[in-house]
Amino acid sequence: MNKSIIHDAIVLCLITLIAGVALGGVHELTAEPIAIAHEKAANETYREVFPDAVNFRTDEEIAAKLEAAAGDIAAQGFGTVEEVKTALDASDNVIGYIVNATGKGYGGPVQISCGISSEGKLTGLGFLSISETPGLGMRANTPEFRSQFPGKSAAEKLELVKSGEAGEHGVQAISGASITSGAVTNALNAAVYFVNQIM
Amino acid sequence: MNRYTERLYNGIWKENPLFVLLLGTCPTLAVTTSATNGFGMGLAATAVLVFSNIIISLMRNIIPGKVRLPAEIVVVASLVTVCDMLMEAFTPGLYKSLGIFIPLIVVNCIILGRAEAFALKNDPVVSAFDGIGMGLGFTVALVAIGAFREILGAGSIFGIQIMPAAFTPISIFILAPGAFLVYAMLTALQNKLKMPCATNGDPPKGGDRSACNGNCMSCSAFRQE
């Protein structure tokens, strides 16, 4: 009896050990390609939301400011700002910022990436991660919804507009998905707040 | 039908994991919000099912009977994680559409069910066919439920609008309660028509022991020690 328990325990332990080593090996093998794939995907999104920019760079000074202002941004009740990159043109001049921000959606956090030009205009909006209800909240990630952002003013807070014309300071909500629309607007407002008040 | 094609027929029709065995209900309710999602989840589960069946079958003489469940779970969970990492690293495009389903496969009891009921007692090749059959059966069922919910809840199928503009989508069908409604209606229908299904009450007398007759103790899949 006791002997069989020990035998079973050893076998199970060996199986677990081998599985663990295999997992570690695969992780070693895939860590780098995964990081590259992530960066590539993020860069594609950046290019989409800031079509005029040629290159994007992480600025340490901005990163430090962002870290210091995290509490301030959270206190506004919009959302959080995770990352800010400078958008550069062909001759390395800063022509605006890429801001990655998150708002609370219906199916979890909605992470957006938006471009804000030095003139204070939105250049575009894309999604880094979104897991809303298909057919409802997921319609945020369609050209119909996203195409309203380029050209909007980023000088002040944006309002969610549920009916009628959205105008320069408004975001046209998706019908039936006000929580998702609110998440996008909040994330956008966190980004706008950071660029206007803290930078 | 030889023993390999018999496995395919068995998985897709006779013992369809979702409709007949009622396995894997949890991820089913979560992902069948659209036909496309069902298809993605089905394919991802099929891949894992085939490999887990092969590996469990190869190890069937090593795994001690008393600790077979933890041993199987370790193998399945590791396999799912490996799949997840490999897909993310080398097929980012595929990962983007299927990636969210991969972690859900760990909690998919079809994988464990087939390891336990079939792969532990059969050779690797036929176990692989069992995995393909069960996986395809799961895919077909998921697409069917997903399409039904999508048509009612969003007026479309595979993302293509098919209902006329006058049709107002019944949004509840693509939300969580809709999943329960559809699954409950399906099971009720099977019950009413006395179709083979794990939820149907009395087993037929002296009946077919290989298909699901509602009597788990007499099931061919039940492991006799």
Describe the structure.
The complex is a heterodimer of chains A (199) and B (225). Chain A is α+β, with helices and mostly antiparallel strands and 199 residues long. Chain A folds into two domains: 1-48; 55-198. Chain A has four helices and seven strands. Chain A has helices spanning 2-49, 60-75, 143-146, 178-198; strands at 55-58, 80-88, 94-104, 109-117, 122-129, 159-161, 170-172. Chain A has a five-stranded antiparallel sheet, sandwiched between helices. In chain A, strand 4 (109-117) and strand 5 form a beta hairpin. Chain A is globular and about 75 Å long. Helices cover 60% and strands 2% of the residues of chain B. Chain B is globular. Chain B has helices spanning 3-14, 25-31, 35-58, 68-90, 92-98, 102-106, 109-117, 124-154, 176-192, and strands at residues 156-157, 160-161. Chain B contains nine helices and two strands; from the N terminus they run ααααααααββα. Chain B has a two-stranded antiparallel sheet. Chain B has one domain. Chain B is mainly α and 225 residues long. The longest helix of chain B has 31 residues, at 124-154. At the A-B interface, helix 1 of A face helix 4, helix 5 and helix 8 of B.
The biggest beta sheet of chain A, please?
5 strands, antiparallel
Indicate the proportion of strand residues of chain A. Answer: 15-25%
- SS-based structural class of chain A? alpha+beta
**Biggest chain pair interface:** A-B, 27 and 34 residues
Mean pLDDT of chain B: 82
How many structural domains of chain B? 1
**Head-to-tail CA distance between termini of chain B:** 29 Å
Concise description?
The complex is a heterodimer of chains A (199) and B (225). Chain A has helices spanning 2-49, 60-75, 143-146, 178-198, and strands at 55-58, 80-88, 94-104, 109-117, 122-129, 159-161, 170-172. Chain A has 199 residues and is an alpha+beta fold.
What is the topological layout?
The complex is a heterodimer of chains A (199) and B (225).
Chain A: H1 2-49, E1 55-58, H2 60-75, E2 80-88, E3 94-104, E4 109-117, E5 122-129, H3 143-146, E6 159-161, E7 170-172, H4 178-198
Parallel strand pairs in A: 6-7
Antiparallel strand pairs in A: 1-2, 2-3, 3-4, 4-5
Chain B: H1 3-14, H2 25-31, H3 35-58, H4 68-90, H5 92-98, H6 102-106, H7 109-117, H8 124-154, E1 156-157, E2 160-161, H9 176-192
Helix pairs in contact in B: 1-8, 3-4, 3-7, 3-8, 4-5, 4-7, 8-9
